[in-house]
Design goal:
Keywords: Coiled coil. It comes from Flavobacterium gawalongense. This is Transcriptional regulator. The protein is mostly helical. Among the domains are: 95 residues, Arc Repressor Mutant, subunit A, CATH 1.10.10; 63 residues, no CATH class. The protein is 61% helix and 6% strand. The protein has a three-stranded antiparallel sheet. A two-stranded antiparallel sheet has the order 4-5. Helix 2 crosses helix 3, helix 2 crosses helix 4 and helix 8 packs across helix 9.
Length: 277
C-alpha cells in the first residue's frame, strides 16, 4: 500500500468534513502509526493508554467520543474489547484508491495553458478578443500599481528628508544652548575672602556672618550638604543670610517676648503688680 496516497486521500476527506477537529486528526494519525508498524495489516490491536499518550489526548471521554465519531463517519472500524488486559481491534480503510489519477493530457494542458491561450489570441479576429483584453487590462493594473508604489516611495523619501531636517535643527538648537551656557561667566570656587566680604556688606550683613560662611564651607571643601560640589557660592551665601536670621538667638527673643532674656530673672517683663502673688 502507498501510504502517501493514503494520507493524501485522508486529508482530502478531512478538508470537506467540517465536523472534524484537531483531536480527531491527532487520534487518526496515532492509529495510522500503529498501522504502519504492523505493515498495514488489518485489523490491528491497540491499547487506550498508548494511543492517548501518542495523540496527546488527556481525557478518556474525549478519546471514546472521537473514536466513536470516526467509526460512524467511516474513517475506521472500531471493535472495543471492554477488557483492560486485552486490546481493542481497529480496521483502517485504504483511502489511496479514492484518488483520481491525473491524465497526461490534462498535465500538458495545465503546463502549456498560458502559451496556448496566447497563441490563440494572436490568431483571433477583432470580435473575439475577450481573453486578449483581459491580459491587457491585467498589465495595465500592474503598471498602475507600480506607479502608485513609485509615488509612495517618493512621498516616503520626502518625509524622511523633512524628519532629518527637523532632527538637524533640534541638534543645532541644543548646541547653541550649550554654547550660551559655556559663555556665561562662572563664579570661581572657592571664592576669595574679599569677594565674600564685599557680597555680605552689599546684603547689609556683618563681617562676622561673612567669616562664618567662609570658614564653614572652607572647612568642608565647599560641598553643599557635605556631598555635592558647590556650583554658585553667591546663591549659597544668600541662603546663609536667610537662614542666619532663624538661628540668631537675639531675633528669637524679639519674636517671643514671653521668654526671659539672659541676665534677668525667670519672669515676664510686663508684670502686673496689682495681682496677688
Amino acid at each position: 500500500m502507498n501510504y502517501i496516497k493514503h494520507l493524501t486521500g485522508f486529508f482530502d476527506k478531512v478538508v470537506l468534513d467540517n465536523s472534524l477537529n484537531p483531536t480527531h486528526i491527532s487520534l487518526y494519525i496515532s492509529i495510522f502509526q500503529f498501522w504502519n508498524l504492523n505493515r498495514f495489516q488489518n485489523p490491528i490491536s491497540i491499547t487506550r493508554d498508548e494511543v492517548m499518550r501518542i495523540s496527546k489526548i488527556c481525557s478518556k471521554a474525549t478519546y471514546h467520543k472521537c473514536m466513536r465519531e470516526m467509526h460512524e463517519k467511516g474513517y475506521l472500524k472500531y471493535e472495543p474489547s471492554y477488557n483492560p488486559f486485552r486490546g481493542s481491534l481497529v480496521y483502517l480503510i485504504n483511502f489511496s484508491d479514492d484518488l483520481k489519477p491525473v491524465q497526461k493530457k490534462d498535465r500538458k494542458v495545465s503546463k502549456n495553458e498560458q502559451t496556448v491561450e496566447q497563441a490563440l489570441n494572436k490568431q483571433q479576429t477583432s470580435s473575439e478578443t475577450g481573453t486578449e483584453q483581459a491580459l491587457v487590462s491585467s498589465i495595465n493594473s500592474i503598471n498602475n500599481t507600480n506607479n502608485i508604489n513609485i509615488l509612495n516611495l517618493g512621498e516616503q523619501k520626502q518625509n524622511l528628508k523633512t524628519d532629518e531636517l527637523e532632527l538637524t535643527k533640534k541638534e543645532e538648537n541644543k548646541k547653541k544652548l550649550r554654547e550660551k551656557k559655556d559663555t556665561i561667566p562662572k563664579e570661581k570656587i572657592p571664592p576669595d575672602w574679599n569677594d565674600v566680604l564685599v557680597f555680605f556688606k552689599e546684603k547689609n550683613n556683618s563681617e562676622i556672618e561673612a567669616e562664618k560662611f567662609f570658614n564653614h564651607f572652607q572647612s568642608n571643601g565647599w560641598l553643599v550638604g557635605g556631598k555635592s560640589k558647590m556650583k554658585d557660592w553667591k546663591a549659597a551665601a544668600r541662603n546663609w543670610i536667610l537662614n542666619a536670621q532663624k538661628f540668631n538667638p537675639i531675633t528669637k527673643q524679639m519674636q517671643n517676648s514671653s521668654t526671659p532674656t539672659p541676665g534677668n530673672l525667670q519672669t515676664t517683663i510686663h508684670k502686673n503688680y496689682a495681682e496677688p502673688l
